[in-house]
Amino acid sequence: MCKEITGASAVVVGLVLVLFIVVVPVFAQPEMAPPNPAFERYLEDIRLGRPWLLVTPEGYYLSNILEPVDLRGTPFSWPHSVR
User: Fold this and answer.
1) CA–CA separation, 42 vs 51, rounded Å?
2) Which of 1, 31, 54, 65 is least enclosed by beta carbons within 10 angstroms?
3) Whole-angstrom Cα distance, residue 4 to residue 18?
4) Helix, strand, coil % in the chain, rounded to nearest 5
């Protein structure tokens, strides 16, 4: 037969859940995203005084700055990002 959950066992289960929810994220270490090589080239060219000319054939300047991290293969990647 099934044993009914008493008040004391419900409190124990609740405490275990709270500890799991509070303690586990404390030990989870964030991981650094890999740097975007195109962004590193962009920064190096800016540092050396060779800015990228982002101009359309009509003469309009673009403000496209590359992403600092490479998000390919993650849910945060954009399909139209410049790579």
Assistant:
1) 8
2) 1
3) 22
4) 40, 5, 55
Query: Which residues are bridge partners to 55 per DSSP?
Result: 61
Copy the structure tokens of residue 44: 């190096």
Quick check: pTM over 0.70?
Answer: no
Over the stretch 28-62, which tens digit does the pLDDT of each residue have? Answer: 777 777 888 888 888 898 889 887 777 888 888 77
- Which tokens go with 27? 């030990």
- For residue 77, give every residue at least 6 positions away whose Cβ sits within 8 Å of its Cβ, in sequence order, or none: 71
- Quote the CA–CA distance of 65 and 55 in Å, as a whole number: 13
Q: Which of 81, 62, 61 is nearest to 71 (CA)?
A: 81
- Asked whether 74 and 56 are in contact (CB, 8 A), the reply is no
Residues 6+ apart with CB under 8 A from 67: 36, 39, 81
